[in-house]
Amino acid sequence: MSLTSIRYFVVLLTLLACSSANFAIADVSTKSLVNEIASGNVSVSGVEGTGGSSGTVLDGYLINNTNKEMNLDVFLKDAIHFINKGRGQNMYALGVLERSGRFIRSGKKSFIKLGPKKGVAVKFLSYCADFGKDNPSPGEMFSLGTPPPNIGPVLSRISAYHNKYPSQDITKAAQVAIWVAQGESPSAILSKFEYSQTDLELAYRFSGN
Question: Residue 76: exposed, middle, or buried by beta-carbon count in 10 A (0-12, 13-18, 19+)?
Fold first, then answer.
């Protein structure tokens, strides 16, 4: 179970925040992707695996169904549960970037834009949900689901940490926390997924142990 794109998401947030692709916008208003999906304002399509277990390892598309431009938060306050239609793991998504890596930074907010009645190719910052299954293979497609209630508090703590420390790479700790919360032992996880003692300590904080 290899770790793919572990630092990709955080490196983009750190480096692109200073790039000419970003704009300073005062009092910018942003929206929650989960809320916009629930209201029907945004559709998700073509979500598929890339072979990785944790990080920006799901590709997909977001479509703005409204006549207005919208700004969507990069870090999701609520996780999206993606159900694998194939044999690989289901996934929890807690972040989204344009497929190119582009996003906009204004003050403490990081977001992507969706033009009216337009779609954009994206990458989702995601974590594997099922320890015993293989990583999602390239070409395996996903549909939207609902996270199990018992995992909600763990995902909320990971999301809050993402928002508070956006430039810190917590990919390994977050992935370990999800599996620990599901009853997997640290030794079993280590046999398939490399992590440090620091990662484990932060994982315990996320999992509530």
Answer: buried
